[in-house]
TrEMBL record:
Domain of life: Eukaryota
Enzyme nomenclature, EC number: 5.3.99.6
Catalytic activity, as annotated: (9Z,13S,15Z)-12,13-epoxyoctadeca-9,11,15-trienoate = (9S,13S,15Z)-12-oxophyto-10,15-dienoate
GO molecular function: allene-oxide cyclase activity
Protein name: allene-oxide cyclase
Keywords (A to Z) from UniProt: Chloroplast, Isomerase, Plastid, Transit peptide
Amino acid sequence: MACFTSSPGTNCSAKVTNSPAEGSKSIVAPTKSVLPFKLATPSLTENSRLLLSKTSSFNSFSVTKRSFSCRNQGASSDDTRPSKVYTGDLKKRIGITAGICVLIQNKPEKNGDRYEAIYSFYFGEYGQISVQGPYLTYEDTYLTVTGGSGIFEGVSGQVKLQQLVFPFKLFYTFYLKGIKDLPEELLGDPVDPNPSVEPHPDAKAAHPHAAIANFTD
């Protein structure tokens, strides 16, 4: 599943595929499968202090694996609203991301910073996924999935974080296990992660046909 988030919200999109090692063939994963889940998100602000998140492999298993991706585009650093989340194809509004990020270290030699990120992805009545780990503004990193609720209850795994435009756009790939198949409306072919993509106007406006029911706002 892929997601895209945009300021002051997050756009999220989803895609079910085999794991990177198994190719890109579309599949349906069983319960207790391992899920790659991607997202681009504006999780941080540029302030060098405790920050409000703006959003938006494993052990060997013989089971099918699934991919879930998200894109996030962040709000300005003085905006306290959470980021909106859309499906990875940018056609549907599905929720928000929210949390905190703490600046740990400035890396002048890499022209970037290291943060500790703690935040959650909220998908309305479907539930939420919480993550924690390093966010580096100069290279890809992995966050640990710390738990979930609703259809994500019992989830574990990790999230690959790819920065597109600091601090406004990030792309995540979630590798999840311990949950059942995801709802079809959360799934789709994610757009190519690049700084210029935007959610569909209907998704931005959260029209009924372009949003999940009772999405978190």
